[in-house]
Each structure stands twice: as C-alpha cells, then as structure tokens.
Automatic annotation (TrEMBL):
It comes from Loxodonta africana. This is PITH domain-containing protein 1. It holds the Pfam family PITH. GO terms for cellular component: nucleus; sperm cytoplasmic droplet. PANTHER family: AD039 HT014 THIOREDOXIN FAMILY TRP26, PITH DOMAIN-CONTAINING PROTEIN 1. The gene is PITHD1.
Length: 219
C-alpha cells in the first residue's frame, strides 16, 4: 500500500503497525473523551450536529450510521476545543470508498472560532490523504508544533473529485493534561458568576478623621 505524504513533516503509517496490541489500540485513540463536545463546531455540515458524531471510540469507527457530509461544496472545517492541554501525536481520517473521501487535511492549533476565511493563513501542518476505509492509517503530527494544544482546527480542503465530502471517523492520538489550578478556578468562576454572592468579604476597619471642631453624629 502506498501511503500519503505530508507537507511540513510527519507521515502516514498503519495503526496496526503501532506498538500497542489490538486490545489497547482503542485507548491510544481516546482523546475524543477530552473534547468539549458542546462547543465543538463543524462548518459546512449538511446536517446540523453530525460533525460531532465522527469523534467516537476507535472500536466504533466502522459504524457507518454516524458520519458527516459537507453541504455547499467539498470543504469541512472542524473546530475542536479540548478540556485541557493536549500533545497531539497522530490523526486517523476514515471516509467512503469513492471520490467523496478527503484527499487533503490542514491542521491549525489554538485558533478558537476559526472560519473558512481564516484558512487562507499558513497551516501548522498539511497532509495529503490516502483512502482509508477501515480506520487503519495514522498521520503523524509534528509533536514540537502540537505539544500544547487547547483548540484544534481540522480543515478538509479537498476530496478526490466529488461534489461533497463524507467522513465517518476521526481518531486523535496523544496525551492530555489537566488545566492548571488557577485556570480551572477562573473557568468555574466565569461559568457560575453567582457563586461570588455566597462568599462574604471582611473589609478592614478604617478610622475616619474629622476636621477640628467637628464631631460624629450619634447613630
């Protein structure tokens, strides 16, 4: 099998060639558990919310009832917020056995609310894709560029010639670390601003001085 190449580093290899035995391979692609699905966006999806369905367990990657298909043209743009910091090491893109399969993937890190207008900028990494019908081809990222990712954008820029693009599974492999304590505190504070009303604040007593000849009126 001839594997695709990537521009700017990285490559493609079969997931089966990885060191993990089959029963542990699903754990390796468990970063979908660290995605904030409520805030995940898929631009140009033909059915609202369908883009979230392709981030699923590796063992369920062949479930073809869940997929996303582009709408107006062949492009798709996933905005993926994580619940912590991620070191992204590899990506799997699984599509259909026809021209609707993605042929190019462009990655951008830490650009929340990215739009198609923003894809004119230089991506952090670009991959030429091969058809993958079983979810076995992994595209290795440049870890030095993706070692501190809290938001990932995946731009499917083209396919193999169809009017629309179809994706069944996106697998993300890497490491996740929890946000630092002060960041978590800030997040909780912003999410529940009314909590501040439950805390009492003791202000220091301050002596008030009056001009000579003045006196404080009785309360």
């Amino acid at each position: 099998m001839s594997h695709g190449h990537s521009h700017g580093g990285g490559g493609c290899r079969c997931a089966a060639e990885r060191e993990e035995p089959p029963e542990q391979r699903g754990l390796a692609y468990g970063l979908y558990l660290r995605i904030d699905l409520e805030r995940l966006q898929c631009l140009n999806e033909s059915r609202e919310g369908s883009g979230r369905g392709v981030f699923k367990p590796w063992e369920e990657r062949t479930d073809r009832s869940k997929f996303v298909e582009s709408d107006a043209d062949e492009e798709l743009l996933f905005n993926i917020p994580f619940t912590g910091n991620v070191k992204l090491k590899g990506i799997i893109i699984m599509g259909e056995d026809d021209e609707s399969h993605p042929s190019e993937m462009r990655l951008y890190k830490n650009i929340p609310q990215m739009s198609f207008d923003d894809t004119d900028r230089e991506p952090d990494q670009t991959f030429s894709l091969n058809r993958d019908l079983t979810g076995e081809l992994e595209y290795a990222t440049k870890i030095s560029r993706f070692s501190n990712v809290h938001h990932l954008s995946i731009h499917i820029s083209k396919n193999f010639g169809a009017d629309t693009t179809k994706v069944f599974y996106i697998g993300l492999r890497g490491e996740w670390t929890e946000l630092r304590r002060h960041e978590v505190t800030i997040c909780n504070y912003e999410a529940s601003p009314t909590q501040q009303t439950t805390k009492s604040i003791r202000l220091p007593h301050r002596r008030t001085s009056f001009p000579k000849g003045w006196r404080r009126l009785p309360q």
